[in-house]
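Sample pair:
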Amino acid sequence: MLAKKTVKNQITLPKRIVQDFPNVEYFDVRKEDDRIILEPLKTDRAKQVRAKLAALKITEMDIAKAVAWARKK
């Protein structure tokens, strides 16, 4: 199957491929060697992580402090 890049750097994924990912809106895009890798992101996983953080009472401020601490090293 082929996918053509437009002048606006857009690519339409073939229908035969995307039909296997029915509820996916977003893809993580990365480059590995000379390849472009698309990995489907499931939004419900993000919701699970947010729920876990809330249950542990971890706030955005806690995360910001942890990132600042890690960057000092």
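The chain has two domains: 1-41, 43-73.
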